[in-house]
Design a protein that fits this description.
The structure is a homotrimer of 135-residue chains. With 135 residues, chain A is α+β, with helices and mostly antiparallel strands. Chain A is built from three helices and eight strands; from the N terminus they run ββαββααββββ.
Amino acid sequence: METITVRTREHSQLIDITREIQALVSESSMDAGIVNVFVPHTTAGITINESADPSVAHDILAVLDRLVPWRDPKYRHSEGNAAAHVKASLVGSSVRVIVSSGGLKLGTWQGIFFCEFDGPRTRKVHVALQPVDLG
Amino acid sequence: METITVRTREHSQLIDITREIQALVSESSMDAGIVNVFVPHTTAGITINESADPSVAHDILAVLDRLVPWRDPKYRHSEGNAAAHVKASLVGSSVRVIVSSGGLKLGTWQGIFFCEFDGPRTRKVHVALQPVDLG
Amino acid sequence: METITVRTREHSQLIDITREIQALVSESSMDAGIVNVFVPHTTAGITINESADPSVAHDILAVLDRLVPWRDPKYRHSEGNAAAHVKASLVGSSVRVIVSSGGLKLGTWQGIFFCEFDGPRTRKVHVALQPVDLG
């Protein structure tokens, strides 16, 4: 298992970590298999979406903010970041990508995004490789 | 890794691909393990839900349309399909199912659905098998 | 593959099953790898979120109820639990956690929660271990 560090700069922010994940795969000897990317935080998530146009990341965050507003008198969690926890469960805590010929089998427009919902913070992402025995 | 093709017919559509996934497992020599199903698109997703009653798929799409309407002047993504991108991140890009005795360990009512959010299109689904060594 | 039983007591309820999952890992001989946790139901889900403060689970359920109300004349599914199906697809049917030195590599505040959306019921959770050969 490897761990990478992500420094977020905004309260809500999607950060493309595709290069970092591909670098870990390239540094390993894995030709084919699955790469598992896991976020060990409860106010952040991870998703795969379009990396070419940054407005997509903006729209994802804006819709999440509308659906799960930061302030709501009905929230019971006393730390003030209930919305970040809810968003984490809507988006999810891990993604997996198939690796083939040493490369991530992402679609043309896909990138892997760390989702900060209660930043800015210094965050961690765990990465575990599962080689497939092609023997 | 195998790739199957899915032709969607509607703008928003859930298509049951359980049979195609089971067929790939059956064609392999895998008795036990995990099958990973991955969508390499940013305006489509994949989910597991009830396959017996097609009204469930209808209701899932209808709620997503209400929560993430197709038109919203606040969207910044200029291609007009921001809603499809947001839905892709809410639903997710991959599912995994446990394989036991050569069969998908789905619940009685569960099926695997490709989720088209910006169709109709011809789409791809990647499938990677991870046999478990029971030795 | 192992299967654990979860008895839910409420109509909507998040139940922390982290100890049960860790127990299965501990009982196995797996030192490192991935544990896959899969819900074979279409009106339940599974998520990873904060386990220290139960108000977080409350807020997650409350927001889901607001976004996907139990009653809506537009639902077509005739069994009356369309909302539970929609929530299942928003939250997802499986989670994975990295195992290292025999322990779940969860963050400090993370727990694994079975998500009941149409209870109370007796439910099942399938667990499949994927050891990594560190040879």
